[in-house]
Design goal:
Elements: H1 3-14, H2 17-66
Helix pairs in contact: 1-2
Amino acid sequence: MSYPLLILFISMHKSDTTLELGALAIALTSSIFALIAYAILEGLKIRLYTRLMLCLREVQNIFDGAGQRPRPSEGSGSGAADLNEPGTPVQAPA
């Protein structure tokens, strides 16, 4: 409930300027705090969108790089398994 408006209506009804000024001061103060809170939330939103864009760019780079790696059969031709490549079969020692 908006108490400053209630106080303002009561002060207008009683013709009391002190109550009217107090109600206007409270309304102005609450408006300023609301604007500050809105600015903080907008700044947080910009920061979160920036983090989201960085994460999406990182994921895109990972997926773009995944298609460019050579397959184990396309490697150096020596027949040795590339241990860094996922899905490489493990060979038993001789």
